[in-house]
Amino acid sequence: MTSPSPIITVSGLSKTYSTGFSALKSVDLEIRRGEIFALLGPNGAGKTTLISIICGLVKPSAGTVLADGHDIQRDYRAARSTIGLVPQELTTDAFETVWSTVSFSRGLFGKPKNPAFIERILKELSLWDKKDTQIRRLSGGMKRRVLIAKALAHEPRILFLDEPTAGVDVELRQDMWQMVRRLRDGGVTIILTTHYIEEAEEMADRIGVISKGEIILVEDKAELMRKLGKKQLSLQLQQPIAALPAALSGFDLSLSPAGDEIVYTYDTQAERTGITTLLQGLGEAGIRFRDLSTSQSSLEDIFVSLVKERA
């Protein structure tokens, strides 16, 4: 089965500002049609710059971007009309009502009036009862919903969410993720940047990691977790020990400061975990344990170690 053509193709994209700061360095990236793609990276890594260039808000220093086949520079209007952007900052006309600001966004892209469609978006985002309220009278969470409604008003095929749940309460976060899944099921491709790694772990199909303006990895989420996920076996000892026996030096072991717990880190990919041999070795050394538990590294552990490697 051939994979569908990418909906976004970024080639050799670089951005150097007049100050000499290089925000992006020759970035190549393909986003697949209909996926949820999470872009992870520390502050200042280049996430927002990359999104801003793809959305046509910032001019690149070099390279090209195709959005659904349209060059974002040469064919700006056609490319931009396929894209919805939910920015980090809450920028909306404070004195407009919810209904008029969302309707206006649709008109900006030359779409014919469609009150039924606007009504559906507002209902999906729990904004219907606020449709006649001025934006300045809304809570931060509600303003965030209005930004999403505005981004969806012209029926884009690609939706960018830049740190969408920063400073948002848990209930709204859950609502937003349900909506993102519905959009994806309806054929919209979603690209999100996030600081909340559990968000990417829960939502994304694929994950890209950006650090210092370079994409250091793009991987299917499940594959990333499988390849880089380390498992740990924790053994609670019956009696504390002063040091690990020399006979066990071949294992990746650490002893707790109190000497009452041994942690064995092993690769989930290895043909043999070595656990049986380890337990045998402990028995021979006269070390008894009263309990054991296993844990697997989260996406956060993987991300931190990846960025550290590049530091």
Written description of the protein model:
InterPro entries: AAA+_ATPase, ABC_transporter-like_ATP-bd, ABC_transporter-like_CS, ABC_transporter_ATP-binding, P-loop_NTPase. Residues 8-237 form the ABC transporter domain. Keywords: ATP-binding, Nucleotide-binding, Transport. The radius of gyration is 25 Å and the shape is elongated. It has ten helices and 14 strands. The protein has two domains: 6-226, 3-Layer(aba) Sandwich (Rossmann fold), CATH 3.40.50; 230-310, Alpha-Beta Plaits (2-Layer Sandwich). It starts with 5 loop residues before the first strand and ends with a helix. With 311 residues, it is an alpha/beta fold. The protein has helices at residues 47-54, 76-81, 98-108, 115-124, 140-152, 170-185, 197-203, 221-228, 275-284, 299-310, and strands at residues 6-16, 22-32, 36-40, 62-67, 70-71, 83-86, 158-162, 189-193, 206-211, 214-220, 230-237, 253-255, 261-267, 289-296. Helix 3 (98-108) packs parallel to helix 5. Helix content is 32%, strand content 28%. The model has no long low-confidence stretch (mean pLDDT 87). The strands form three sheets. Strands 6-7-8-3-9-10 form a six-stranded mixed beta sheet, sandwiched between helices. The protein has a four-stranded antiparallel beta sheet with strand order 2-1-4-5.
